[in-house]
Design brief:
The complex is a heterodimer of chains A (152) and B (744).
Chain A lengths: L1 E4 L2 E4 L8 H8 L18 E4 L2 E4 L12 E2 L1 H4 L7 H8 L9 H14 L5 H8 L9 H17 L1
Helix pairs in contact in A: 3-6
Chain B lengths: L2 H19 L6 H4 L15 E4 L2 E4 L2 E5 L9 H13 L6 E4 L26 H17 L9 H5 L2 H21 L7 E3 L2 E3 L5 E3 H10 L26 H4 L16 E7 L7 E5 L9 E7 L2 E6 L2 H10 L1 E4 L8 H14 L4 E6 L9 E7 L11 E6 L4 E5 L4 H12 L6 E5 L13 H11 L6 E4 L2 H6 L7 E10 L2 E12 L1 H9 L24 E9 L12 H20 L3 H8 L3 H14 L9 E10 L2 E12 L2 E12 L6 H21 L4 E2 L2 E2 L17 E7 L16 H13 L16
The chains are: A alpha+beta (152), B alpha+beta (744).
């Protein structure tokens, strides 16, 4: 089947019911999306399908009918997305394993809400688990990213 | 590399060992140098100046042997070396190095000695030194016990200084100038005319000359890096999704594996039927492993699907099947058992009339780092390679050598970045299972990834613990406090049973952070009871202090309430250690303790000295219609020196959230011999919507340095318990509090 990931069209030969996460990781060798739970309970695997944040571990590849963006497609070390730049500025990460998913979720939030309140952030981000407990910095970084996106 | 170079480096190490140790105990073997593990792989033109600095054509690599689980260990170790080496963090590579006895951890022995960590007298220091010597002899390259900074604070700076001075000597030789005319900055020796000789250009020369071992560490007033905000070396990668972890390991020809091992931990597999599995797409092989069965496939998900489709009959557990039975064992141990140790016995408890009697409980807890356990192993006829995230590389090397029949020198353990640990990666069962699979797949690299459910079900948890307290108050003061605590032994389960590593004497983790608190209560006794082994247990972030901090401080708050005293004032009155007192004064000042609060708000305070670090916390909550909401936490921790204030604040806040999240939401319980929880929907800690605002202050009132990875955890639960008591009139007696109270 055809799958567009980060602007590149791929032809993948997998079962329809394989979760997108494992197509990305094991077939396309994109390691940004992480496996944490397999049941959409942690958010480490979050990617965008058609611009909307989804848990790729519970999204079957056969059900996808839009382009996929992973954290690698959001930005990279030499050209960071505003969310990534804010994450760096606040040094949010500890182990960092959840942060790709956190950033993809935050980017989705900010695409729909240019000035999120604490409550908006809680609502949008509480499906993304961080076992290291970096939540105070996640909140701060989301606000910084919102500001820099507004300022263009 | 020439013979002369080798001898020079050996000689050098004799000198440097004396500097690195910095502590002479008249103990011959202690002073013997260990082989420099980097010598074996050096090519011409490389110099391994110490086991911590490697310079070659690729640049300057700083060896950071304490593993990075997310706590920023690589960065802080690199900063300590770079401080004296005169190089910047954006100019270096970091590498955890090979498993080696050269990377022994002296500080980890500190928690095992029978002296409170605030006692820096000659006897206590001598005993710590002795334990350090024991650790060195056994070559324990362990990351744990909040020891990375205390262990490396002088050792790593000394390594940087020795390397710097030797490079200057090499530059003096090459240029014909006197060493005193040379300076160093940004990875180069600078000549008087401004010409720069990069360290790489000096590597070959430095390997040939006699090393300079007579160095003096710079005073703190000259520090460029230590104490100032840093950007962690891993931060760009972790902010862009480009950081690679153990689970991201890839090799040509690598296959993917999954296992299912008896969830009744330690029980046998009676039989399995994989007839439906071997024809599933991508499945290559079904392989029995210790206590279970594994599948080799061409993709992780296909391996997961296949291993779940195997029909297995499991034997019973080698411990009681039901949770109630576990609690009964603890109660029986206190009632009828012999004490494992009574490390504190002040005054007269037997004559004191108890006015307050309590019983508290702390549950089993899983570690559940977000990156599940994984290991990649390649077995060939001549060597074994292991790639994994792991805190005990030397022990893992020994285990794999034993399993494969190889010499330990032929087992190469490569430590990769970890997506959290919290103590989980102090265990290496996943490496053992991966090795079993790889032995059946000789010549093919096998990556074993645990499903989250397997990770949780197979976890060696924090032990359950039960505490019984009797106490008395008089004239508004706490006058008597007796604590009896029972739990299964972490040391027996983790070190003795699984690593074959004898730990003589009492298990000090059972009474950790109970007996050594800096309070002068006139009648004060702590007794530990070592319960029989139940479910297998291990070290969980802050180890014994994680449950005992709750027990001690919740009980002390109950007694202070009984006395009618203020919980900050009464602690300050009882405290015998000035730096500890200052942490409590700091959080009282930061929070405006004693001020008016709105009717539905309440505050609680707690303190715990663990891993040598005093930590005080005050929490403010709102008791609203939706339940209890955590609003704010103020926290102060005394560490002697905050190496990187940015990372410090993050680690402390994370520790508080770790402590609160599990205190409210989490437990592992057994039914039918198996953990009843298996994924993040039933074991999750704290999420963003429950996380409070956190205000952190690092304290520097001592002349020695201690760690901060674990000490913020223990005070969180009892501070919250006190706030809940003040808000509701009901004192929590067992975790998780969410079983008894509603949280927003």
């Amino acid at each position: 089947m055809k799958l567009s990931v980060n602007g590149v069209m791929h032809d993948v030969d997998v079962e329809d019911d394989m979760p997108l996460l494992w197509v990305l990781r094991d077939e396309l060798k994109l390691d940004g999306p992480k496996y944490g739970c397999g049941v959409a309970a942690c958010g480490a695997c979050t990617v965008h399908v058609d611009g909307v944040a989804v848990r790729s571990c519970q999204t079957l590849v056969g059900d996808i009918d839009g382009p996929v963006t992973t954290i690698e497609g959001l930005g990279n070390p030499s050209e960071m997305h505003a969310v990534q730049a804010a994450w760096l500025k606040h040094q949010v990460a500890q182990c960092g394993y959840c942060q790709g998913g956190q950033m993809m979720q935050a980017a989705d939030l900010l695409a729909n809400n240019t000035a999120p309140t604490d409550e908006d952030i809680d609502d949008a981000m509480s499906g993304n688990l961080c076992r290291c407990g970096t939540y105070p910095r996640i909140r701060a970084a989301v606000k910084t990213a919102a500001q820099s996106l507004q300022e263009g | 590399m020439g013979r002369i170079g080798t001898i020079a480096r050996r000689t050098f190490l004799v000198g440097s060992a004396a500097i690195l140790g910095g502590v002479a105990f008249g103990y011959y073997k202690y002073k013997q140098p260990v082989d420099n593990p980097l010598d074996d792989d050096l090519a011409q033109g490389e110099a391994a100046l110490t086991p911590y600095v490697l310079i070659n054509a690729d640049g300057v690599t700083l060896i950071t042997p304490r593993a990075d689980k997310g706590q920023g260990a690589y960065s802080v170790q690199a900063a300590l070396i770079a401080e004296e080496l005169d190089i910047e963090l954006d100019q270096i590579n970091v590498d955890p190095g090979p498993p080696s006895a050269a990377y022994w951890n002296t500080a980890i022995a500190g928690e095992g000695v029978p002296f409170p960590s605030t006692d820096r007298g000659a006897v206590a220091e001598g005993m710590r030194g002795f334990m350090g010597a024991v650790v060195k002899l056994m070559g324990m390259q362990i990351t744990g016990g909040s020891t990375t900074v205390p262990d490396g604070f002088e050792k790593l700076r000394a390594a940087g200084a020795v390397a710097r001075e030797t490079l200057k000597a090499a530059a003096a030789d090459m240029s014909g100038l006197a060493v005193t005319q040379l300076k160093t900055e940004r990875g180069a020796v600078v000549l008087p005319d401004g010409k720069r000789i990069p360290y790489q250009a000096l590597a070959a020369k430095a390997a040939e000359i006699a090393p300079v071992t007579d160095v003096t560490l710079r005073p703190s007033t000259q520090w460029r890096l230590v104490g100032k905000p840093m950007q962690r070396v891993d931060m760009v990668a972790k902010s862009t999704g480009t950081q690679s972890y153990g689970i991201d390991m890839r090799m040509d020809g690598m296959v993917h594996a999954a296992v299912r091992v008896n969830p009744r931990k330690g029980g046998e597999m009676i039989s399995f039927d994989a007839s439906e599995v071997e024809t599933m797409r991508g499945v290559q092989k079904v392989i029995p492993v210790t206590g279970g069965v594994g599948v080799i496939a061409d993709n992780t998900w296909r391996a997961f699907q296949a291993v779940d489709a195997i029909e297995v009959e499991w034997d019973s557990a080698p411990y009681p099947a039901e949770q109630d039975q576990h609690w009964q064992v603890l109660a029986d141990t206190i009632d009828t058992g012999d004490a494992d140790a009574t490390p504190r016995d002040d005054g007269d408890l037997d004559g004191a009339d108890a006015t307050v009697e309590v019983e508290y409980r702390a549950p089993y807890l899983a570690h559940a780092p977000l990156e599940p356990m994984n290991a990649t192993v390649l077995v060939t006829d001549s060597r074994v390679d292991v790639w994994t995230g792991n805190q005990i590389p030397r022990m893992t090397q020994a285990s794999v050598a034993k399993m494969t029949g190889m010499d330990a020198d032929d087992v190469h353990v490569h430590i990769l970045m970890m997506g959290g640990s919290f103590g989980h990666r102090l265990e290496d069962e996943v490496v053992k299972r991966a090795t079993e699979l790889a032995m059946a797949m000789k010549g093919t690299p096998v990556k074993l990834t645990y499903k989250r459910e397997e990770d949780t079900l197979q976890d060696f948890t924090r032990p359950i613990a039960m505490m019984r307290g009797r106490g008395a108050v008089a004239d508004g003061k706490v006058t008597a406090m007796e604590i009896k605590v029972a739990s299964p032994s972490v040391m027996d389960s983790q070190m003795v049973e699984r690593q074959g590593f004898p730990v003589p004497g009492p298990d000090t983790t059972i009474t950790q952070a109970l007996w050594d608190q800096p309070y002068a209560i006139p009648n004060y006794r702590v007794t530990g009871y070592r319960a029989p082994q139940l479910g297998p247990v291990s070290s969980w972030r802050s180890v014994g202090a994680s449950q005992n901090g709750f027990f001690h401080e919740n009980f002390l708050n109950a007694l202070i309430h009984e006395a009618g005293a203020d919980p900050v004032e009464e602690r300050l009155r009882l405290m015998t250690d000035d730096p500890s007192r200052k942490t409590l004064e700091a959080v009282a000042e930061m929070s405006g303790w004693g001020g008016d609060l709105a009717a539905n708000k309440a505050r609680g305070v707690a303190f715990c000295l663990s891993f040598g670090t005093p930590c005080a916390q005050i929490i403010e909550i709102t008791n609203g219609e939706d339940g209890i909401k955590l609003d704010k936490v103020w926290v102060a921790a005394e560490v002697g020196k905050v190496v990187d204030p940015v990372n410090f604040e993050n680690l402390v806040a994370g520790g508080v959230i770790w402590g609160l999240g599990h205190a409210i939401n989490s437990q592992i319980t057994y039914a039918d011999g198996m953990a009843e929880q298996e994924n993040f929907f039933d074991f999750e800690g704290l999420r963003n919507n429950q996380a409070p605002e956190i205000f952190v202050r690092g304290m520097e009132n001592r002349d020695y340095v201690t760690g901060v990875g674990e000490p913020p955890v223990p005070p969180a639960a009892p501070a919250l318990a006190e706030a809940i008591f003040r808000a509701t009139g009901e004192r929590p007696t067992q975790m998780p509090f969410g079983e008894s109270f509603d949280f927003a």
